[in-house]
Write a structure and sequence with these properties.
8 helices, 4-stranded mixed sheet
Length: 221
Amino acid sequence: MNSSKNISGPSGGAEPRKRSRPGLEVKIWSDFVCPYCFLAEGQLKDATSGLAVRVDWMPFELRPYPERTLRPEGNYLQTVWQRSVYPLAAQLGVDIRLPDVSPQPYSRLAHEGLLFAKEHGKAAEYVDAVFRAFFQCSLDIGDPGVLQSIAQRIGLQGEAFAAALRDGSYAAEHLASLALARQFGIRAVPAIMIGDDRLVGMSSAQRLRQLFIQKAGPGTK
């Protein structure tokens, strides 16, 4: 596994905010337009159930602006979903469908919304709601209005959320989080960091749980 000794933010710009609490901290980089990240969310939730593990969701953009995003009607996504995503989702018992939003949305605003949700103690709820909005309801998660509705539905203050996106309140922190991913050499998601260990790609809930217990020791449960 690749390792890194430094978990601090990169130099320059705003550092991702640190929230120190007891327990094992697990960082997961993901993108809201990545189906494997949605599938990994469920595995991570099962793996951490009943354990003193803090999950810190970190932003990652697979195709940042101005790079062109993919189209669901295109051969690449059609092939990947039929050969890989749908079979894996069926195996895991997850309801997922290829969103018909074309082209796929940029995820920057959704990630900035995640940082707002983190600051207000709603990161897990926000992540789950955004994934489901895109992969189960085919909503355009690049639309600020859609994101505001999601935020309100999970109990966040909608007007404050919308203002934060409009004013770019979390733009610098978002860029710092992307820089941190580059610092760690993360180029694909989902990517999970547990201390110095890094897992890239899908990992089963059983494997993750065993690793969490191993890393945190007997006091994890």
